[in-house]
Every structure is written in structure tokens, then in C-alpha cells.
Specification:
single chain; Tachylectin-2, Chain A; 4-stranded antiparallel sheet; 50% strand; mainly beta; 343 residues
Length: 343
């Protein structure tokens, strides 16, 4: 039986934390190391005021951090932001909020209204970084997903031209997390953005990441699981944000289990094809009411997200967790939690 000690280290965003970057309220915060070694964290709908829905709306935005600060007692220290007006964090994907898109994009034809584009995860492969985003009309309505690329350590991003319709694989290829394996494959777990769907598993050779035909599913057919089959759910339930990472030599998944209102850490001893239906699950953040919060033991109202930070180890995991008070629109922030895991 593992022991678990949960500690909130700090608010990562909000007043007194990210004012210098023009960030009052924001959420999400998936993170990876850039080729130059900096920590790169990508955030969703961002506002200059602390409240969600205020002035200065943009998404996604990128902050850079000191990777050595992850394991300190004060949490991640931000060192800069992406965009043309430093230190102001600019929107790194080119589009206008609430605009109607003409022409063919993501398999759709003209007249599509895009409210916002939300990041789901980023990955570093060689000297380039890749960012997966969802083009949404309101929350939960995904028109398409798309991969963007940075050739300068996360400073600027451009579309790769690879996109999938929102309905791809029955809508189970919207929310995505990915990680590069030692075998040269990128493994990805996906679900919908409605927080009511199970997980699918996929892989693609890293050097063919942008070749849609090279992606293949992990599925059950003819009495056995195998690659190249139509993907079938690897974990039933109702999931939201996901974070698949190699931590040391081990694979771990952090998942917002919306159905059970919690964030779980799941060790994957057999790697990406671990049977997640029988895998150990460590609940590290428990959702609760606003009157029942205790961040000191991981009780967080209206919690979501849960992204594994670079620098984590199997016995000391660090997560970015989001919180949004949807009635008052504050708190609307990302927070740094440390989980010490014993045997």
C-alpha cells in the first residue's frame, strides 16, 4: 500500500504571480522541456484581469520557467513568456476569438465560428516542439484539432497543416496527451472534450508525426489486443485533461477523472499498453465543495487539469492543477502541487 503526501507549493498564476506577463486569470498549464532546456508551459483562455472573461483575452499563451525550481519548496519560477512584446505573454496561435472561418479547415467548409483554441499538450522531438490544440465553439464543441510547431524553443509557433475533424473516431480524438518512447514511437492517449468519454490509445513513429496515415490505434479484435486495429477504449469512464509522461524509466498517466471528480496518478508498469482497467490509481486531488476546501491535503473545489511537470520522479511527482469558480469567475488559476509517494 503506497503512502501519499500532498502539498500545495503555490499559485502559479494570478495576482502577485504573473502580473508582469499580463496574466491575471488563466488555466491548464501542460509543460515540457524545450530543446534548450527551459521549461515551457502552455495555458488556455487567458485574461489580463484575474477573473475569467475579463479584458485581454487570448489563448494559448506560453510561459517559460526555470526547470530547477520545480523541485524547490517554492514551486516553479517563471522567467519569461512567448510573444512579440516581452514580457507580455502574447497569443501564440494566429486566429481571432469569436471569428467565423471561411474556406476548408479541419474538414469543415466555411461559416465555422471559432470561440477559442485550447491547448491539450506539447512535446519535444529533437530540436522542435509540437503543440496540439482544439478549435472550439464554446466549451465542449470541438470543430477540429490541429498540430502546431515551434523551431525556436517555444518562442513562436506555426501550423503544421495537420488537422483532424472534431468528430474523428467518434469524437474521442479531441483531448490529447502524448509522450516519446525509447522505441522511437510517440504514444498518445485521447478522449473527448465533453468530460463524459473513455480513453483511446494510439502511436505514431516520431519521424512521421505529421503523417496522418502513420497514426495507428491500439484495439481489441479477434480475441486479442493489437496495433493497427480500430482503437477501442482502454479505460472506460468520463475523463477530461490528460498528461502522459515518462518519469525516469517509468510511464505515468495523470488524468482528470470527471466522473469521479478527482485527479488520479496512474503508474503504467508495462508502458503505454498497460491494462488501465486494473492499474493502480492514486487519487492525488479530490474535488469538493467551496466550503470544504483544504489545499493542504489536496481537497480542491472545481478542480481539473493535472499536468505532470518535468523534474518529477516516481517518488516525488509535481502537478499543475487548475481551478475555476464558475459562478464568480475567480479563482481562475493554475496551481503547483507536490505529491510524495512512498511504498
Amino acid at each position: 500500500m503506497r503512502t501519499l503526501e500532498v502539498t500545495k507549493l503555490r499559485d502559479l498564476t494570478g495576482p502577485g504571480q504573473t502580473d508582469d506577463f499580463g496574466i491575471g486569470g488563466t488555466d491548464l498549464g501542460a509543460a515540457a522541456l524545450a530543446p534548450d532546456g527551459r521549461l515551457v508551459a502552455v495555458f488556455g483562455d487567458t485574461f489580463e484581469s484575474k477573473e475569467a472573461g475579463g479584458r485581454g483575452w487570448r489563448s494559448p499563451v506560453v510561459l517559460f520557467g526555470d526547470p530547477a525550481s520545480v523541485r524547490g519548496n517554492d514551486g516553479v519560477r517563471w522567467t519569461g513568456s512567448a510573444g512579440g512584446s516581452h514580457p507580455y505573454a502574447e497569443q501564440v496561435v494566429s486566429y481571432r476569438h469569436n471569428a467565423r472561418i471561411g474556406g476548408r479547415l479541419g474538414g469543415l467548409i466555411g461559416g465555422t465560428r471559432i470561440t477559442t483554441q485550447l491547448p491539450t499538450d506539447l512535446i519535444t522531438i529533437g530540436d522542435q516542439m509540437y503543440l496540439h490544440v482544439m478549435a472550439c465553439e464554446g466549451l465542449g464543441n470541438v470543430h477540429w484539432t490541429e498540430i502546431h510547431r515551434s523551431r525556436d524553443n517555444g518562442e513562436t509557433w506555426e501550423s503544421t497543416g495537420l488537422s483532424w475533424p472534431g468528430g474523428h473516431l467518434g469524437g474521442l480524438f479531441q483531448m490529447l496527451t502524448w509522450e516519446l518512447g525509447p522505441d522511437g514511437y510517440v504514444y498518445a492517449l485521447t478522449t473527448g472534450f465533453q468530460r463524459d468519454k473513455p480513453l483511446l490509445l494510439h502511436r505514431v513513429p516520431a519521424d512521421r508525426l505529421l503523417d496522418a496515415a502513420a497514426w495507428e490505434g491500439w484495439g481489441f479484435a479477434d480475441g486479442a489486443w493489437g496495433w493497427g486495429n480500430a482503437p477501442t477504449p482502454v479505460l472506460p469512464g468520463a475523463f477530461g485533461e490528460l498528461s502522459l509522461r515518462r518519469v525516469g524509466d517509468a510511464w505515468w498517466l495523470a488524468a482528470f477523472d470527471a466522473g469521479n471528480y478527482r485527479v488520479d496518478l496512474i503508474p503504467m508498469p508495462q508502458g503505454p499498453t498497460t491494462d488501465l482497467t486494473t492499474a493502480e490509481r492514486l487519487t492525488v486531488i479530490a474535488g469538493c465543495g467551496w466550503d470544504d476546501e483544504d489545499h493542504g491535503c489536496g481537497r480542491v473545489a472545481q478542480c481539473y487539469g493535472g499536468y505532470i511537470l518535468p523534474g518529477s520522479t516516481p517518488d516525488e511527482m509535481h502537478l499543475v492543477v487548475s481551478q475555476w469558480h464558475t459562478n464568480d469567475n475567480w479563482p481562475y488559476r493554475a496551481m503547483h502541487f507536490r505529491m510524495r509517494i512512498g511504498v
